[in-house]
Design the sequence.
């Protein structure tokens, strides 16, 4: 049996402490210890994006991060996107634009999209951002959205509607 360590994280606004085996991933902390099953375990190798959460506002694959390394961090899961009983604008856009089919990848897609929109608004370039783009927000073209969301796979093929939803909310 591995060594256990206390880990304190803020999950969706609630500060919580867990005593965890040092080998526990952030994904398993969320699902098995915090009871937040919205974040999905897909490939468990960081290749599908189903486990994407926001750590201090940045996108991360929770299956690749050890929970002990998240001590003191602020985690937002899909359950934390809605506020006061109202869906996050991306959640609403996903529903309105049919941006999901089976829904398994949707929590990771939503968290990734929140991060992607924030990155573009801050002017952070992606691999397809044109060189020499002036400081300021990056336009969320189809190519930009597809590149920024490329780490999140959808086996149903809902990509066109996911792109539409990200662009709609990103334009606000």
Sequence:
């Amino acid at each position: 049996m591995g060594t256990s360590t206390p880990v304190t994280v803020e999950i969706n606004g609630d500060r919580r402490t867990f005593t965890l085996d040092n080998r526990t991933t952030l994904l398993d902390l969320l699902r098995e210890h915090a009871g937040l099953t919205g974040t999905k375990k897909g490939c468990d190798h960081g290749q599908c994006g189903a486990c994407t959460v926001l750590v201090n506002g940045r996108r991360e694959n929770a299956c690749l991060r050890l929970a002990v390394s998240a001590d003191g961090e602020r985690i937002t899961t899909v359950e934390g996107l809605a506020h006061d009983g109202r869906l996050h604008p991306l959640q609403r856009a996903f529903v309105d634009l049919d941006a999901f089919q089976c829904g398994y990848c949707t929590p990771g897609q939503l968290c990734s999209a929140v991060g992607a929109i924030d990155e573009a608004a801050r002017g952070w370039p992606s691999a397809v951002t044109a060189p020499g783009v002036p400081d300021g927000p990056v336009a969320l073209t189809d190519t930009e959205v597809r590149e920024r969301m490329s780490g999140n796979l959808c086996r149903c093929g809902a990509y066109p509607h996911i792109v539409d939803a990200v662009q709609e909310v990103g334009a606000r």
Summary: Residues 106-121 form the longest helix (16 residues). The two ends are 50 Å apart (CA to CA). DSSP finds five helices and five strands in the chain.
